[in-house]
Every structure is written in structure tokens, then in C-alpha cells.
Amino acid sequence: MLTVLQSPHPFWALLGILIAVLTVAAGLIWFERRLLALWQDRYGPNRVGPFGLLQVVADMIKIFTKEDWIPPFADRWVFVLAPAIVVATALFGFAVIPFSPTIIISDLNIGLLFFLAMSSLGVYSVVLGGWSSDNKYALLGALRAAAQMLSYEVFMGLAVMGTVMLAGSFSLGAIVQAQARTHWFVLPQFLGFVLFFIAGVAETRRLPFDLPEAESELVAGFHSEYSGMKFGMFFVGEYIGVTLISCLITVLFWGGWLGPWLPGLIWFALKMFAFIAFFILLRAALPRPRFDQLMAWGWKLMLPLALANLLVTGAIILAVR
Amino acid sequence: MLSILRTIWDVFLHAFRRRVTIQYPEQKAYLAARYRGRIILARDPDGGERCVACYLCAVACPVDCIALQATEDATGRRYPEFFRINFSRCIYCGFCEEACPTYAIQLTPDTEMGEYRRQDMVYEKEDLLIAGTGKYPGYNFWRIAGVQIGGKDKGDAERESPPVDLRSLMP
After folding, report:
1. Residues of B whose CB is below 8 A from A40
2. CB A281 to CB B12 under 8 A?
3. Does B159 score more than 90 pLDDT?
């Protein structure tokens, strides 16, 4: 029987996860720049503090002391609200992630649905930010973001249904426990893993699917008009999103905290950082597709593949039973 | 599809390549001997100033960053009374070096001339003059030129024939 995971000290788990996630998201500023530099035969920031680690602090000081400018033509309240939404929804997603059997905020029985809901709400941030900026580039970016994130969310949900069928539960804790009993779901659900990863990249608006930002075409896309810490919130929100997707891939397909010798939390962190690094590798390696290509892949390739994966997985489960 | 995976793998392999960055203040980049950097004024092998204050460098300069004033010493040698280069204007094109008939003005492989005050970028003659001959060690303009100066009459220069006596009928 699967047990509902519970933390012995829920408050401390909450506080610890919040601090850890924000630290990781801020640290990714440094991590991403160093890794990109590594793959481009450079060093990246290595001057501020040991290995340039204090670059994060320097960037923070810089972004906090920048002029916090709200354009006079912007829709003021929505403009201020939009960057908060992206961070809030991404942070909510961490509520259902089981980092180890005892470090979890809430093992909801619909945990996966909760995550999908939160990541859908994240679209509002981008769309409202682009809309309230009252700027053609921001609006174009927001339009693209809306279309892209809706299309990729469809098969993102379908891609994980295979794991849900195998585990027999939407609870993320139960999914990891099911993997402990059998094997990691990346083996039977490799296609689902690939689809979910691609959808995750699109969902976090990371390269190569960063069309809502598309510096070379749209200035900075939906956050063209943002400056100071409001821009910083979009920035951190994106990194929290990357961390969240990496956590989910770890939980859904790569056995979460499972692993020999080392404690569960270490295994979780190792797997998570491996996927974060892969996110960054994609950014270093791949060019941005055209928008019609992006849409065509989403609807004509990824969605049928996800549906086929769903049907085949279901058929095999029925046949075995 | 396969090309995408191939690209990702190739970029990943770059993690094991040598990094091309030069860690500047600790490590210096190699600058070629003919690199066009900080401008200097060279001297003769004898230690005298090479510059004859002909103004050709100031004329050639596309940004008008060279200012000088010609004068003569007691022996008749021309030299600049002042010679001033405004390095905040200089574009290091090297036209002055090309224009110079006496190899006096030369560009050197040195770029480290940042200053906190703009005024400090204006170099006077004593800042520009160096002790040596720069890129042309043996050259001495006043030994070669046919100009008459104190201690060197007409015909005394190297490879110069004695002056012709116009009134003589002898071949």
C-alpha cells in the first residue's frame, strides 16, 4: 500500500524548501553563465568572490538599485502584478514536490494536476505583463507566449499520463514509491520523458523555445518595458520554473530521491542539477525555431506522439493485467 | 532530428576544450611588434630628438589630435617647442607614423593607458619622448640629410658629395 508522505515538521520543511528554492534560483544566474561559458570555451564570471560565486550578490545589488520605472502609458496595477504572478505560481508548484520521504510540504492526492494548474496560471503573468506594457513588441511577445504555452501544455499533460497510469496515482509521492517497487519510469516511458522535457522547455520559455522573448526580433518580448526588480522577478521566475520542471522530471521519470548509497536528498539534488544543466546545454546548443515551426511541431508531431504514447501504454497495462 | 542531437553532443564536448579567454590583468595578450598602440617620439642614436617639427603628422592626423610648434636651436636644428598628443581623441590609425619623414613618431605595442581624468590623456613632449631609437635603430636624420646645421656643413652628410662650386670652370 502506498503511504501518503508527510514531513515531521511541516513548518520547517516549508521554510527550508522556500529558502532552498530561492537560493537555487538565484544561484542559477551564476550557474547558467558559468556553464554557457564552459560550452563556449570561455570562463564566465570568475572575478567576484571564489569562482565568481558572489556575482549573484553583485547582480542582486545592481538590479535592486536600478531605477524602477513604470511607463506612463502602462496599465499600472496589472503591470506591477504580472511579475509577481510568475514567481508565485512557480513557487506554488514546489508545494507538491517530494524532495525526500520526509521533506515535502503537502503530498496532495492530485499533486500532478496541481502542478499543471499552477504552470497554466503562469501564462497569465506573461500575457498580462505584455498586455499591460502597451507596447507592440511586448504585445507580440505576450501573444506568442499565450499560443506557445497553451499548445505545449496540452501534450505536457498527456505526456505524464503514462506515468500516472503506471503508478495508479496523481500523487507525486505515490509515483516515486511506485518507482521504488518497480523501476524508474524513464524505462517504460522514455517517449513520455522526452515529450515532457520538450514541453517543459517550452513552458518555461527557455531557449530554443524563447520566442516570447526573442531578443533578435522583439527587443525583449513581453518584458521589454520592465526594469529593475520587476524585470528581476521575471528573471528569477524563469529560473524557478526551470528548477521546478527539473524537479518534476526527477520525480516523474528518474525515481525522485531513489538511489543507492547516498541519502535521498542528495540523489534528488544531483538529478535535479543534471537536468538544469541540460536545460542550459540546450540554450548553448540550439537555435530558435520559427514560430510556425514551433506551432507545427507542437500540434502535428508532439501531440499525436503523446496520444500514441498514452494509448500504447494503456493497451500494454490492460494486456498485462 | 538527428542533427539536433548531434549539435547538443558537439556543444557538450566543448566542455573539455581549452578555453580561449586570456585572464587579462594577470595574463597579457601577445601584441605584435608592429601593433598600433601608444605613440612615442624616438631619439637619434646620439640621443638628440629625431622630430624636425615638419607638421606632416599633424596634417595627416584624421582626428587632429596632434599639436606642435616648430622652433630652431642655436645650431640651426629644427625641433618642436612643444609636442602634444591628445590620446582621448587619437584613433591609433598610424597615419602620423607613415607621414613622418624622420622615423621620429612611432606607434608601440602598448595599450594600457587608461586614466581617471580626461585631462591626463593629453601627453606632452616629455611624456612622449623615449630614451632610445624605437623601431629604426641605426637611422640618424641629421647625419643623412643635406641640411646645414652647426657642426655639419654642406657636403658633410653621409653619402653626400661635396657641394659644387658654380663659379669654377674645372670639370
Report:
1. 14
2. yes
3. no
Q: Could you say which of 3.40.50.1700, 2.140.10.10, 3.30.70.3270, 1.10.3720.10 is the CATH number of the domain covering B30-135?
A: 3.30.70.3270
Within chain A, which residues score under 70 in pLDDT? 1-2
* B18 contacts A38? CB cut-off 8 A: no
User: What mean pLDDT is predicted for residues B100-112?
Assistant: 91
- A39/B contact by beta carbon, under 8 A: yes
Checking if the pLDDT of B96 tops 90, the result is: yes
The secondary structure of A224-284 as a DSSP string is: TT--HHHHHHHHHHHHHHHHHHHHHHHHHHS-TT--SSS-HHHHHHHHHHHHHHHHHHHHH
> How far, in Å, CA of B157 to CA of B152, rounded?
7
Q: Cα A155 to the chain's mean position, in Å? A: 15
Task: Search chain B and give the residue with CA nearest A285.
Answer: B8
pTM of the model: 0.80
Whether A39 and B14 lie within 8 Å, measured CB to CB: yes
State which residue of chain A sits closest to B17, comparing Cα positions: A41
With CA atoms as reference, the chain A residue closest to B26 would be A47
